[in-house]
Specification:
439 residues, alpha+beta, four-stranded antiparallel sheet, 11 strands, 13% strand
Length: 439
Amino acid sequence: MLSNEESVETKLQRIAEKAKSDSDCKYTSLFHLMNEELLLGCFEQLRNNAASGIDGVTKDQYAEQLPENLCQLVGRLHRMAYIPQPVMRVYIPKPGSNKMRPLGIPALEDKLVQAGLVKILQRIYEQDFIDDSYGFRPGRSCHDALRALSQTVENQPVNYIVEADIRGFFDNVDQDQLMVFLGHRIADKRILRYIKRFLKAGIQEGGVYRASDRGTPQGGVISPLLANIYLHYSLDLWFTRRFVKTCHGIARMIRYADDFVVCFQIEADAKRFRHAMEERLNQFGLEIAPEKTCCIEFGVFAIKRAKARSEKAATFDFLGFTHYCSRSRNGQRFRMKRKTISKRLTAKLKAYKGWLRSNRTLTTPEIIQKTVSKLHGHYGYYGVTDNSQGINAYYYEVRGMLYKWLNRRGKRGCYSWEKFTKLLTRYPLPTPRIMVNLF
């Protein structure tokens, strides 16, 4: 590339600035950015150990002739000769259950092209998405959503929570409606045609092809972005621009992908939203799961009112945590606290036990090293304010399982707890600690 040429990153930044300053701008010329420089960056970001799709091509194999492969790929893209391959569907064990979870694996070049499209579209839609949308966005995380929820419930006059769950969201997105939504911002026909091709690429399972008339690409890196765009137009804008204006008290929705909760001050607003939201989603081919969707009393007065009814204050689940009403340590003010969802904790422990069973032939140092990594990962997510009990429970159960499995390696009863303690002195397990402050 000549030194006086703009880099792709510079061009993308200018697109972002234009999108931010002009919310009505439609982009007619974007596809020229799908060049070798952009796709090379996407290739470098691919995981080295990522599973291959139906083409069987791995990252290492593609890298053997990377410049030639990227050049040919760009040529096919710009001739509109590139045809996405069906996603290979496999099933993996679902932690804590006997059920299997479907997993979609796109072909390597499909991953590259989708990643390139995401880089372009993200610069536009990041300027449009509402602040309270947290899922699969750069610089945002589950913990940011939890922090926003805590600040709202504890610092605003929140008295009711609507907990909502969309049934099979990623499989039920209306593709035609999604294309209409994309047309509000994207007028580059090549971008739209390739997105349409990915939507229609289909699924291959056990050697049998199945067309995909609904939903977003299984396992595709573009799927989360398309999902956010769909919910931005079908839910977020409707809530922030229309429904909130009809409320008599405060109302705030916090969404992480298809998982969201809504805080209300007035009961009538909360109940009205519960029904209006269902009608709104139905218009776009989406359904809520009634058994996972409810309106509950929650907030500073919830405990007192529940006691008057001889009941316990209601709780709700969000992003892996059960949220419940409580008080500060000195009892002076209301606090919303959280703990690991009990079913989630059980599932995590079952998953670890299954891992031990599958890897019992590893050496003791290897097993402990992997266990250390798993504990760090668990603390990194679940180690949030108020959840000391949850992460301590996980630690003690994991330690107990580890002792039992190591004890089975020799003669029954020959491995004492004292010996195990000495082993942990040499190979210590990380102790539970709060990693994320939600204040």
